Amino acid sequence: MTVNAAVRPSPEALAPQLRRQPHALLSLRLDARLRGSWAWIEVALTGMAGALALVGFFTASGTQVARSIRLGPAPGWAGRFPHRFGAICFLPADAAELRLTAVGTAAASVMATGLSCRPMPRWRAAARMLARRPAAVAGLVARPLPLTRNALRDRIRDVLAVSARAYDDQGHAAWVALFDTWTEADFPPPPKDCAIAYAVIGRAGAAALARTLQSLDAQYVPPVRVVLEDGAALRAAVSGLPADYIGILQAGETLPPHATAMAATELARLGRPDIAIADEDEITAQGERMSPSFKPTPNHMLMLSGTLSRGLWLVARGTLLDQLRDDDAGSAEAVRLGLWLRRQEAGEGGFSQRIPYILSHRHPETVAANPDALASVVAAHLARIGAPFTARPGWPVTLGLRDTAPLGRVTVIIPSTLRQAHCLECITAILRDTDYPDLDLHVAIAQDGPLDAAQEQAAAAIRVFPNATVTLIQAESFNFSRVNNQILARTQGEHVLLLNDDVSPIRADWLRWMVAFLSEPAVGIVGARLVYPNGTLQHGGVIMGLSEVCDHAHRGLPRGSPGYMSRAVLPQQVSAVTGACMLVRRSLLEQVGGLDEGYPSAFNDVDLALRIGELGYAVIYAPQAELWHLELQTYGSHYGGDRRPFYQGEVARMVHRWAGVLDADPFHNPNLSLDAMRHWEAAFPPRTAATAAPIAGLAERA
Length: 702
Hints:
Helix content: 25-40%
Shape: globular
Pfam family, one: Glyco_tranf_2_3
CATH topology of the largest domain: Spore Coat Polysaccharide Biosynthesis Protein SpsA, Chain A
Structural class: alpha+beta
Radius of gyration: 27 Å
CATH architecture of the largest domain: Alpha-Beta Complex
GO molecular function, one term: transferase activity
Keywords: Membrane, Transferase, Transmembrane, Transmembrane helix
InterPro entries: Nucleotide-diphossugar_trans (IPR029044)
Largest sheet: 10 strands, mixed
Protein name: GT2 family glycosyltransferase
């Protein structure tokens, strides 16, 4: 094996981006005899003078071929050699090289020596990883097993993969020390047209206001600011401020010293959006930081909940003066929310962006917005746009469904074998227990030969319902996309519902909710919230890049839990939803040519959602539409048995076609992990501009 020193980029080469970047340390050529097996990676470090994380990347011909690994303090060395790091990992069969990169405040000064790779028996690797990661193991093992021959083996493989990538749980403080500790030298000169002033809403003389003003005075260059008593006219107060952007703060929200410098750099990088919303966390009276809120790209449906209205907002001065009303007053949360919703009504998407860095801390004395006030802002907006929803006060704000919500004809397409007992039970439950007046349901059986006696009996039971049909499609092999496309061509419903035969209603109004969300012209697809029979979530939207390609958000979360930032229970825009229960506008489905028949088994639903998203339409996760899902009970695993070659080809197509979104899902913050069962935990390291380059991303695999 050969160890090569890497060339470090000069600070000047990184401008105008943030100057603190990861540093490549060493690379290791992998012995071909070890590829496709387990190994122990180890390295010695010198010159450590701060927080540090070590990340390893497997590459071939300079591009990344597998998810990164994290190296932690090597067990047994702590007393004698405190700066020795190691990790258990599986060496990908196609990997030619391991590249080691340092991230954190000590990255610039650290030196690495003695990088080595030693084989490790599979049983020993498994035993050590399972012992180290009991929580991850429990979460994965608790997921229901599909009825496939190799299901248990595949589950164990998933557990080991998560364990191999897991970074030791060190909490938010360790993450802050590694990735959120900055100095003035980390930032380039302030960009033009991004000067920032602040408007602080609070009560004069209050301790919360004093904290906020003190944090503004501590900025690298103290900014201009105005203070507004609750009820003061914000529009008049900010009209004369000499700034390109106005930062809106509630008394008690404080800024770290680097916030203004970083905000200006990010505003320039993002193309100077009308509104930019930064990440935040909480801070205790003792100064301990906790509970980070890593936000998705701002989107209409999630904005209605009010959960994005906290923390530092930066509003272009012209936008603020155009959208602000003279009667806007009260909390900063209500002002921010009203501004965003009115700007959204003005048209043209993409006016707001996310700054994926923590730029404010919320102290205990920060006064939260009155729930009635936030609901009033949302209700006024819903009335102005004629939405079929009402706003219900609370934290977060929730939606109700108007009785006058518009309805359209829905064509339901269910591919099935009609051989398992659950197929008939679920299909008849859809027909019997769905409170929707205008749907036609089509069961499609694709096989080479006529229906057998059991299938005929099940088909007869379905045909009892006047709005249901059963169609036999002659086919030598099953292709989910082709079956749906053939039924699509024979029907005429305004909306098309793709549905699995192992799904049944939990609440009768599930389809009314889905159609109501689709009534907004900007929405192209709506997906449901699906629940396992054991009461845990099966689907809460799809996160791109999760578990290598994509996976369901909130999988395994108890049904009664709100999830991270309440996102398991709030309607929101996502990149994709599952085709197990997906409502699509027919005109768009026809415009993109239906489902891609090059995906016969897996990813056809995700590919469809991404293609419709490319047209500029939103994909919405609607948790009010709640159904049971048995998952993989009819056709089995996408990657088991004779389907495995198809699945591998489908993965390759997805990686090639959608590399950009796999590497950067806009609705999954780059500070959040992409590891299965850990996707609402902090990423080590984050995939932000300040921590990602020059690391090779998944997009480079295409």
